[in-house]
Specification:
The chain is of the alpha/beta class. 45% of the residues lie in helices and 17% in strands.
Length: 314
């Protein structure tokens, strides 16, 4: 088998057929593996009628375990991951596989565009032109494409399983751990597929408690990755600066419920990059510069309480 496509699915029958259809009719030998994570909307019944896919059923255990279970049966030399609400361009699998064969690269990257489900509108992402250091790109807050735009040699996935302990940010952890392996990479210009934006999106429906867990896992990822780089003697200034572009907005989100913890993130940020420039402009940027992070965030909290009330304040 040339390529295995792994699609985890949970109550997404409204979009799963589109995702699967976008993987069909390839010239290279492709298997489509769908792992139903205990859906209750008829997904499994529909999957049993599809004769050209490998269907796996598991009790509801989450997307991370579904992906790992899918990989356990995958036979492809190359692996790609696709969320059930996203879809690929018609020739993506063949084009990326051919690129991998001709370049002998273990990682093929293409851009991913955004698709608004309600408006049926496409927003084009920046073209990938120069990714000399995949790790630096993935550490930063700039455009790093999306895993659905990437084709991975199975040896990378064998070394980097998806991690349930980072379930809310496991895609970020996966790409960073792949980047630590320094794989041979090739860029294939053009759009690989579409990251669909819709109202049922998991990230858009996190409650307050879950957002705290999300932020804690996000911070934990950077602590783990940067510590690993430091232990290897590979924590270059470029990596530190890239990480700080993520740590700054993360500190702001953490400050909404734990200013002391947010202050510790900012302290770490300036230890990594003493010359870090605050990205905010205008009045907010002036407040951060003149009053400091701690006082500014406390004032922002007061403003939120006035606007939303104590209990509703995000």
């Amino acid at each position: 088998m040339d390529v295995s496509v792994i699609i985890p699915a949970y109550n997404r029958l409204w979009c799963l057929p589109r995702a699967i259809n976008s993987c069909r009719h390839t010239k290279c030998r492709t298997e489509i593996i769908v792992v139903d994570d205990g859906s209750t909307d008829g997904t499994w019944e529909w999957l049993k009628d599809q004769t050209d896919i490998v269907a796996i059923r598991q009790e509801n255990q989450g997307q991370t375990k579904a992906i790992n279970n899918g990989f356990r049966v995958a036979k492809g030399e190359y692996i790609r991951f696709l969320d059930s609400d996203d879809f690929l361009c018609a020739d993506t699998i063949d084009r990326q596989f051919n690129k991998a064969v001709t370049t002998k690269a273990r990682l093929i990257c293409s851009r991913v565009d955004y698709y608004d489900e309600s408006l049926k509108a496409i927003t084009q992402a920046p073209e990938i032109t120069d990714w000399e250091d995949f790790l630096e790109i993935q550490l930063g807050n700039g455009y790093g494409s999306h895993f659905l735009g990437m084709l991975f040699h199975r040896s990378l996935v064998e070394k980097v399983p998806r991690r349930p302990d980072f379930a809310y940010r496991e895609d970020r952890m996966f790409l960073l751990e792949v980047a630590l392996l320094k794989p041979e990479m090739a860029v294939l210009e053009g759009c690989a597929g579409y990251w669909v934006q819709h109202q049922q999106q998991m990230q858009g429906n996190y409650n307050h408690a879950r957002m705290k867990a999300v932020n804690a896992q996000h911070l934990g990822i950077y602590q783990k990755i940067l510590a690993e780089l430091d232990s290897r003697g590979q924590l270059k200034p470029e990596y530190k600066k890239a990480a700080c572009t993520v740590l700054w907005p993360l500190a702001h989100w953490i400050a909404k419920y734990d200013i002391a913890a947010a202050n510790r993130v900012v302290k770490w940020l300036y230890e990594l990059d003493p010359e870090f420039n605050i990205p905010e402009r205008g009045l907010l940027g002036m407040m951060y510069s003149k009053l400091g992070f701690n006082i500014t965030e406390r004032l922002l909290r007061v403003r939120r309480i006035i606007k939303y009330g104590w209990k509703q304040s995000p």
